[in-house]
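Q: Structure tokens for this one, please.
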Amino acid sequence: MFVHKIDDELSLKLMEMKDADELYELTNTSRNHLRTWLGWVDDNESIKHTKEFIQMGLNKYAAHQGISACILYKGKIAGVIGTHAADWTNRSTSIGYWLGEEFINKGIMTRSVKALTNYLIKDLHLNRIEIRAAESNNSSRAIPERLGFTEEGRLRQVEWLYDHYVDHVVYSILAEDWSVR
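A: Here is the predicted structure, written as tokens:
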């Protein structure tokens, strides 16, 4: 199984069915926190939904279309990071991520995004990695900014978030810009 140790307290691990209970519990205890920026939270009503999400990630990985990984912080699942479908013709993909509420403000996601970007560019030889974040989600936007991604623009009303549309800011990094890291 794919496991990537980032440092003494942090690893990325391909999700497995045995992670379903812990991942669902993390989602459930962080529901209000996650709901602020993630439109899928209300649809995750049971362990069944978490298992379906894990299976979807395993299928994507097996088809060589992306990765969905648990972020392990001191041995506990702290959140999820992964890619959307890879565009192998153009050697690009995008990254999505979330953390449980008790794990925010510890530098976990910046280290995780850096590690995943390294893997995507250096091991899979992708050329372009994109991250989108809601325009008002300053915490999420700070991650690509901290890592040197380029802000490319704003997508107007691109996401319906429960009762309103939100704009997204698009960031990217190219392999030639990342190689110095």
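A few notes: The chain has a mean pLDDT of 94. Residues 3-127 form a domain with the Aminopeptidase fold (CATH 3.40.630.30).
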